[in-house]
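Deliverable D4.2, example record:
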Amino acid sequence: MTDAEKKLWRGLRKNQINEHKFRRQFSLGKYIVDFVCLELKLIIEVDGGQHQDQSTYDEKRDAWLRSQNFNVLRFWNNEVLQNFEGVIEKILYEMEQPAPPIPTFPREGGRGGA
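Output generated by the structure prediction step:
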C-alpha cells in the first residue's frame, strides 16, 4: 500500500466511520478495489500519478463497478495526505446518500410485468 492508502486505511478500518465495515484490496469481478464497504456498495480508490496514463482503463473499470451498483469515489494520493479531513468528509457525505436504485429488466420474452 502507498503512504496515502495506509493513512486512509487507518481511518477506515475497525468500523471507525459510522460503524461501517470497510475491506481493503478486495476482489470484485476481475478487478481489485482499494477499499470497499459492501453494505453501502461504496468503493474508495486512492490514485497515484500512474492513473493519469491509464484514464481509459479506469473509466472502463469504474463503469463496470457502477453497473454492479457500486458508487466509486476516487482521491489522489496528495489529497489524502494533505487534506485528510476533507477526504473523510466527502466519504461521510457519500455514505449518507441513498443507495442507487437497482435496475430492473423485463423478463425474457419481451414485456415486463406479470
